[in-house]
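Please, why this fold?
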Amino acid sequence: MSKGAPLAPGDAIGILGSGQLGRMLAMAAARLGLRTLIYAPESGPACDVATQTIIAPYEDEAALSELAARVGVVTYEFENVPAHTAQFLAARLPVHPGPTALATTQDRAVEKRFLNALGVPTAPFLEVDDAAGLATALAALGRPAILKTRRFGYDGKGQIMIREGMDVEASWLALGGAPCILEGLVPFTREVSVVAARGRDGSFAAYDVCENVHENHILALTTVPARMAAEAAAEAVAMAARIATALDYVGVISVEMFHVVDDAGERLVVNEIAPRVHNSGHWTLDGAVTSQFEQHVRAVCGWPLGSTGRHGRVEMRNLIGQDANDWAALLAEPGACLHLYGKHEARSGRKMGHVTRIFPD
């Protein structure tokens, strides 16, 4: 399928997924005069702000055909869209990012092999298909090591740290016996990410490198720019550009990395790729000339990419669970930029919103 002719204001974008990322994409599209159609198996925050919705399973080909007939391009807000769904749609209209990028990033083993073939460093890893294979992998990589399901993991789900003395069989069964990889630990100094975009014409634009702090495996705090040498930051952006080009990527991509500082200097190890707008890029809504959501809309529509210039030094904190109940105090704080996602229930570990603060550089 070709990348398609550019859309025009008044045209419609199909978004697979109804969560907060789809919500912010729909809001960015509306500001540019574009309509949006949310397609998802269940209603969510994105449905409150989109022009239209289709609530149907991702396997419903009749409903997918209706989606394809009503929009000019399809994108998605999360990477666990079934491969068949993306392929079915891509045979009928432009889908950005394409099915190849989606398939590569849905499987941790496939993703790591892809990165290593590009010469991009990752944590040492071995594929694991059963408890005996896990024992063999642990003997090779040592403990502690991280066992991760190859598919469907996010925010710490689908992984377990295996330490000295832990039972191999029990560790294997803890993840349900699904195909996994075992990763050796990387002695990182900090976690960083590059949020960038690639246009239909191959143009590329990256935001300043983000520094990320996780709590209970969930992103808690992003600060920009990251504390790293200019040369290391440039290499991080160059890695992201190499990855996006190799995937013939269109849209916003985030590359999560470990920043290692040791006696040999600074180096970067890629952790994973997110083929979508990303939590660590939410600061761009208030802290950059062009938000990551507008940038993604521009890219998938075939429009020029916007400036990634930063308005100052930025701090973005996620509001998780009951944190969102502080909304009144945050609204009263001068300079605090509050975003709430319209979720009705503040469950533990659930991302309910975020707040961004901008300081002079």
About this structure: The chain is about 30% helix and 30% strand. The longest strand covers residues 251-262. The chain has a mean pLDDT of 96.
